[in-house]
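Example record

The entry below shows one chain as it appears in the dataset: sequence first, then structure tokens.
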Amino acid sequence: MLKRFCIIFMILIIMSLCPPVVSADGGVSYIGDLCLVLNTGSFGPPGPPIRLGVISYGGKYFGLQGEYFHGSIRIDDNGMIKISLFGTDVTYDFPAQGSKTSLNSMIIVIDPSTGAPDYNLIGRGDYQVMSLSWNRGWSNDQPGSHTESGVGADLYVCD
């Protein structure tokens, strides 16, 4: 037991004296915020913008982070912008009876040739959403699902 403690103690001392091997300096940078608006089709008029912070990893790959969503952007060889978003949401009264939790997955493809620089619009495109939700305490108490595809995703630079 004492031998094992001494070995662990020596490893910790050596690790504390060595400089870090992995560093994000120079490789990751914050670019700014983008807003995504989906024409929600069966749910009525477009919802509020989804605001996402963009982080560059270099090259054609970018990370996204928002209040309820996170994901990535990839620019393909044809210049199309492909966005993958994942998120969770809970109603403010969780875990009370009738509260709802949901898991959302979105794929959005934006065509930059449809952009309008005067309006900060990067482009328009198509989207596909899959949602799973759970209503707590309701009589069925079963998860529900919803899928939707549509034309009407606008990506623009937030003010």
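Notes for this example: Residues 2-17 form the longest helix (16 residues). The radius of gyration is 22 Å.
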